[in-house]
Amino acid sequence: MGEVDxxxxxxxxxxxxxxxxxxxxxxxxxxxxxxxSSDNDSSLxxxxxxxxxxxxxxxxxxxxxxxxxxxxREKIELAERKFFxxxxxxxxxVSRGExxxxxxxxxxxxxxxxxxxxxxxxxxxxxxIVPASHVPEDKxxxxxxxxxxxxxxxxxxxxxxxxAEMEKLAYKLLELIALSLGLPRTRLNGFFKEHTSFIRxxxxxxxxxxxxxLGVGRHKDAGALTILAQDDVxxxxxxxxxxxxxxxxxxxxxxxxxxxxDIIQVWSNDKYESVEHRVMVxxxxxxxxxxxxxxxxxxxxxxxxxxxxxxxxxxxKAYNWGKFFVTRKLSNFKxxxxxxxxxxHFRI
Length: 348
Description:
The chain is of the alpha+beta class.
């Protein structure tokens, strides 16, 4: 990535400003009441209220005292750095492709502009079952199977241990979000019995022209929620709902950044909104991050929850998650002639 290919260059209106605005307002939420509280506990009620306010006002929040032992994060971060330090030739031995989009990739597009990054993807359930194609009439299913490199040998174990911890944290967060919407605590859990969740290892190399390109272009996350571990370099920017400004999320040591995805926006019938975000790159330092994307089973039909709508006002018609997901995956490989699938295509 030494020379800048025009494929990376953002159109003028989407080029990042280097004089960043820091997002002081993104809530920092202490999850320790979860460890020693009951459903009736006032500290839990306060926590639920904070999560609800954060989902409503920001679509993003950070969590501390989340119960994930630091050793698992340190182990995966170290293995990630070792993997991305390998030669391009070595990394490409586990390249992903259209048939099995797991493994290494360095030519991803967001909004049809190439991202300044390289990634390694793996699913939490191995294998993960998804539709074989995005074509609605095609009922065939396919297995996605994780691809692990020979080196570093500890990468697989580090990834699998970390995935188990992320799954536990995701259910805690899902239950808090359900409670904040006035739903029973485990109302949303059933959608994830055969989930299609995946984890991405991101590496953003040093970039000579950070004012022209983005590590990831502006986008919303298609799944239910995302749990992000970022290093101390930082680069995540969130579009503030109050004024549309891009604000920088300053790294907090050992915190996780949580954002509501499109599925929760639809389930909540727009009470909570999936917010646009993007990643800036750096002319002096490389950056690493690890997002966990919580996604339901492929056969899930996503629509506003009956409890949160009166029958007259659902804002979305139902869509099949598996078909939506594989359509979005396809767009990562190809510069499409049309806009990628979005939830507003299902708006009533």
